């Protein structure tokens, strides 16, 4: 009887973690940073070599962001989760643009659609369209995909789903990688 009660309690706890997004996200924010840093991957010099056409900023190459902290996001106007996370990215950009470079790359999008999206929503985060192949190491398999890179090119955070980027955890990460 006691074993059944223990199993039932464990099933309820697991159900709460899996089914209630707030609990799942809280636990992820608490434990995600440690696992990410321990398994960090570095972006090489060759991986940074991507020609970028600026939509609301001048054209550049991703290699110009080497040796800097970078918030690198792959998204599309056609992607509902991408559109959903934009307000939090804009808030993060507004508060941390002096500390980290933001590079948002619109994928499978036309320049006019991206410009329209940015204008309609009053977004001013730097947006680009890749003009050369993107390394397999950072090429997204799902959208949105976001990387937070430290100054050495180490991937501190990789998120391949919607996320609220304007959280205390993300702010702390940025504050720690710019030191």
Please describe what this structure looks like.
It is found in: Cell envelope. Keywords: Cytochrome c-type biogenesis, Membrane, Redox-active center, Transmembrane, Transmembrane helix. This protein has 179 residues and is an alpha/beta fold. The chain folds into two domains: 1-35, no CATH class; 45-178, 3-Layer(aba) Sandwich (Glutaredoxin), CATH 3.40.30.10. It has helices at 2-19, 21-38, 80-96, 111-121, 168-177, and strands spanning 51-54, 60-61, 70-75, 101-106, 127-130, 145-149, 155-159. A seven-stranded mixed beta sheet has the order 2-1-5-4-3-6-7. A hairpin with a 5-residue loop joins strand 6 and strand 7 (155-159). Helix 1 (2-19) packs across helix 2 (21-38). The longest helix has 18 residues, at 2-19.
Strand-helix topology:
Layout: H1 2-19, H2 21-38, E1 51-54, E2 60-61, E3 70-75, H3 80-96, E4 101-106, H4 111-121, E5 127-130, E6 145-149, E7 155-159, H5 168-177
Parallel strand pairs: 3-4, 4-5
Antiparallel strand pairs: 1-2, 1-5, 3-6, 6-7
Helix pairs in contact: 1-2
Could you tell me the strand content as a percent range?
15-25%
Major beta-sheet overview: 7 strands, mixed
The CATH class of the largest domain is Alpha Beta
CATH topology of the largest domain: Glutaredoxin
Protein name: Alkyl hydroperoxide reductase
GO cellular component, one term: cell envelope
GO molecular function, one term: oxidoreductase activity
Pfam family, one: Redoxin
List keywords for this structure.
alpha/beta, Glutaredoxin, 2 domains
Describe, in short, the structure shown:
The chain is an alpha/beta fold and 179 residues long. The chain has helices spanning 2-19, 21-38, 80-96, 111-121, 168-177; strands spanning 51-54, 60-61, 70-75, 101-106, 127-130, 145-149, 155-159. Strands 2-1-5-4-3-6-7 form a 7-stranded mixed β-sheet.
């Amino acid at each position: 009887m006691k074993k059944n009660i223990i199993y039932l309690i464990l099933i309820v706890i697991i159900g709460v973690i899996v089914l209630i997004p707030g609990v799942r996200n809280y636990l992820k924010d608490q434990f995600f940073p440690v696992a990410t840093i321990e398994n960090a991957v570095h972006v090489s010099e060759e991986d940074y070599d991507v020609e970028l056409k600026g939509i609301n900023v001048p054209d550049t190459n991703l290699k110009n962001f080497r040796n800097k902290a970078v918030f690198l996001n792959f998204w599309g106007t056609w992607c509902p989760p991408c559109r959903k996370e934009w307000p939090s990215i804009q808030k993060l950009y507004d508060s941390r643009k002096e500390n980290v470079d933001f590079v948002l790359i619109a994928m499978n999008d036309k320049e006019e659609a991206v410009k329209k999206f940015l204008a309609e929503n009053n977004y001013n985060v730097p947006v680009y369209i890749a003009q050369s192949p993107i390394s397999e190491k950072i090429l997204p398999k799902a959208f949105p995909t976001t990387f937070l890179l430290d100054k050495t090119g180490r991937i501190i955070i990789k998120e391949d789903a919607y996320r609220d980027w304007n959280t205390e955890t993300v702010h702390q990460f940025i504050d720690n990688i710019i030191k």
